[in-house]
Amino acid sequence: MLKTVHYLGGWLLVLGVLSGCMSTKNWKKGQYFLRSQDIKGNKKLSSSNLEALFRQKTNTRFLFGYPSVAAYNYGLKRFEPEKIRAKIEKTKAKYDTLVEQQEARIGKAPEGAKREKIRQKAEKKIRKLKEKKEDKVKDLNQTLREGNWWMRSVGEKPIFYDSLKAKESAKEMEAYYRSKGFFQATVDVETKRNKKRKKVKVYYKVEEGKPLLLGKIEYVTENKVIDSLLTTPELRKKSPLKQGKRYDEEDFNTERTRIVNLLKNNGFYTFHKQYLLFKVDTTALKDTTKQNRKLAHCRIVVNRPAGEEKYHRQYKIDKVIFEIQPNTEITNNAKPDYNKKVSSKGVVYKFAKRRIPYSSHILDYRVQIEPGAFYQYDQVLRTKSLLGALDMFKFVNTTFEIPKDSNDQKVGRLIARIKTSPVEKYQFTSEAGVTVGQGLPGPFINLSLKNRNLFGGAEVFETNFQYTLDGQASFSDENQNYSSQELSLNTALNFPVILFPTRLRFLFNDYGPKTRINVGYNFVQRPEYNRTNLRSSMTYLWFSRYSSYNFTLSEISFVNVPRISSTFKEQLLELERAGNPLIKSFERALVGSYYFTYTFNNTNIGELRNAHYVKLLMESGGTTFNLIDRQFLGGDTLIAGLKYFQFYRFNSSFHYYLPLNKKQKLAFRIHAGIARPYGVSETLPYEKFYFAGGSNSVRAWAPRRLGPGSHPPELREGSEEFDYSFEQPGEIIFEANMEYRFPIYGFFEGALFVDAGNVWMIEADNRPGSEFKFPSFLQEIAVGVGFGLRLNFSFLLIRLDAGVKAYDPARAVGNRYVLGNFNLGNPGHNGQTLLNLGIGYPF
Predict the structure, then answer these.
(1) Which residues pair with 491 in a beta bridge?
(2) CA dist 186 to 171, 192, 249, 308, 349, Å?
(3) Are 204 and 230 found together in one domain?
(4) Per-residue pLDDT tens digits for 648-698
(5) Could you tell me which residue ranges the Bacterial surface antigen (D15) domain spans (predicted)?
(6) CATH number at residue 190
């Protein structure tokens, strides 16, 4: 496969060189191909923001040329509009003749039942002929209008320099500078023409000048309540407008939104942005800074409402009406006969059947709009979010009505109406596809059944069956692949509350709480062994805007290995003698633990801003067994020969995304963790060890084969190459990744990446160099570099990453820098380069 990629790269290089040669003989006089546009002199504002204002975009460049333009020119040579017009007329005439033949057939048909049968058949054919004619003519008109397939699908029309659009771009940049406080900024257009090749480079020369700074910030309003809210020191700190800060229209927009949200969250239901007026007086203050810059006096005026209203009125919630609309339509436009129920919270529930199908107590917890409270916009959004998370309703709409007599009062009244419609009680889904993990791609089938509102308290019962057949690397040889079968059956019952005996459970009602009780069975069949896992757990979940919390009160797994080959068992025993505890994964065991997971995620696809992802995990295993009388325990063994484990585990992962512009991004990841056995246990359950290497780790090493520490793998028999046959577990992990992501062409994306990391044991085992030591562990961090090719179909991203070893701690000191060993003619030699196939971004 590496050889194929190598040759493919060579052909792409040739294509790039050839596409650099463009014929100019058909160009009009005075036309110059727009080769590039550059901005010079901008120091305070980024080039990417200014480039977004270009009225002309350059053609897509690849390597040394413009293959898309070459493809367009290739299609243009074969584009013959007259032939296409003639083909359109010919197509119309052809299908019109066929339609006439069918109409004539109807006219010639004999009277009686046979005539009716012929008529129906002919009319059906006529409809199909007319549809076919319409489709073909539509396609031909598109070709006539937009060009042939080469021109519209593969190619790009060459873009020629337009001096008027360049001047418009310069004016747009000057306007953008003014919006950022540079009122004296100028942008001039300069060009550098290559008359021989008819190409032009455009330069936008920027003179920024000095920016305008904000002086005194003053809020002006006749409403005492609004004035107290706007002038509160704590709330003013949240304002983006600060004295001495550069004038920026974006800050004014942010402040406008902040004020509106502040007032709407304090009862001012009818307040809108139009009531705010920003007055910036640049002559109010003299120059007061050492840089001799002008300070602008800023006044934020809250205007009176329009019409008869003399002041902005606060509103309180008078009633909350929760209307559950029926699924079926009401005939004859008749309104359904609703039944009503008033909850202890004062919410009126209405449903068009004999009884309310959902527990009003559960719905009360989710409805944050309360009778008697001031209107709060955030509570409206929170109510919609919490009700939507129940998975009970197709939609959640909220509207507010002002009673006619409300405006006669100092504090207005609102009637809140929440309208919903139930989703189907039963939902069955099935899917089939291909899974790509650490092994080879393999097919899977997934069947799911969901039963909503099982006991009338908005519970959700789920059951899932999955069967997977995929290619897996052998435990004893990563180059040996064979089919592996996996079957899993999982059931879960979700309650929309925290099931806990004390009143502590009510503390989570505002955070969309859930309790999940899960039971699952997993069966794996490989040539080396059969393995089963029966697991049960009870988990509490809740969330806020960007954060989610997961506390698993109890998770118990019963692991059994009914079959294991003698050859594989000998290999496991040999590994155990060498310090690798893989054999522990194939003993009958009872693994119990509880853990807490916190996740923060403010990433939002499409937004051009910095984003973070944080995940923390704390886990303790085997603690429950401390309550069992020691007479039932024998070392680390329970009754019936079951092993049990006592351990703790801490894990953290941090991702940071830095957009460089709309299409390019830097992505960073740091992953660190530690796991350690305690008490009677000498080792961890195998699933709780850490592993490094693979498509989501250090991509220059095979999955789970890196480390531990500087421990060198055995050499292959009769070779100087490392034998990465066995997985290498560790108790400590540290990984760091950096990736530069950029577009290539169309749905093709590229990435350049650097990966670093390793695993270690806390204490030395039989693997020399595996122990974590400070600070020498820094010299044992493996480093890989590489290039990635991604196919981004918006709904699916397929990833192919080539990782190259740059620093290998398993080698002798002095020979660890191995990037120089890379051979373009044989990139896979000695495991130097590794290809990774994956779905989605690595982090």
Answers:
(1) 463, 519
(2) 9, 20, 18, 47, 63
(3) no
(4) 999 999 999 998 877 789 999 999 999 999 887 888 888 899 999 999 999
(5) 464-806
(6) 3.10.20.310
Q: Any residues with CB less than 8 A from the CB of 275 and at least 6 apart, and which?
A: 302, 303, 304, 305, 312
**428 belongs to a structural domain:** no
Q: Which long-range contacts does 436-441 make (Cβ < 8 Å, 24+ apart)? A: 436/837, 436/838, 436/839, 437/470, 438/473, 438/694, 438/695, 438/703, 438/704, 439/470, 439/471, 439/472, 439/473, 439/481, 439/484, 440/470, 440/471, 440/472, 440/481, 441/470, 441/471, 441/837
Is 530 among the domain residues?
Answer: no
Q: Dihedral (C-alpha) 719, 722, 723, 726: value to the nearest 10 degrees?
A: 170
117 and 227, same domain (yes or no): no
Q: What is the mean pLDDT of residues 451-461?
A: 93
The answer, yes or no, to whether residue 4 has pLDDT greater than 50, is: no
Digit-coded pLDDT (tens) for 562-608 = 998 888 888 888 888 877 777 877 888 888 899 999 999 998 765 66
Residue 119 scores a pLDDT above 70: yes
Distance in angstroms (rounded) separating the CA atoms of residues 726 and 713: 9
Q: Are 602 and 575 in contact (CB under 8 A)?
A: no
CB burial readout 258-268, b (16+ within 10 A) else e: ebbebbbbbbb
Are residues 323 and 418 both part of a single domain?
yes
pLDDT for residue 311: 83
Handedness of CA 214, 215, 221, 223 (dihedral sign): positive
For 48, the domain range is 31-57+159-210
Alpha helices for 147-289 (secondary structure H): 149, 163-179, 224-231, 233-236, 249-264
pLDDT at 369: 94
pLDDT mean over 479-502: 84
Distance, CA of 516 to CA of 520 (rounded, Å): 13
Is the domain of 323 the same as that of 413? yes
Query: Per this entry, what is the length of the chain?
Result: 843
Task: Name the domain count of the chain.
Answer: 4
DSSP state of 790: E
Question: What tokens appear for 589 in the block?
Answer: 């065991």
Sequence-separated (6 or more) residues with CB below 8 Å from residue 121 = none
Euclidean distance between CA atoms 713 and 810, whole angstroms:
7
Residue 175, domain member (yes or no): yes
Cis? peptide before 81, omega within 30° of 0 = no
- Taken in order 113, 116, 122, 125, the sign of the CA dihedral is negative
Cα gap 118→109, rounded to integer Å: 7
Do 123 and 248 reside in the same domain of the chain? no
The H or E element spanning position 68 is helix 67-77
Residues 6+ apart with CB under 8 A from 710: 769, 779, 780, 809, 810
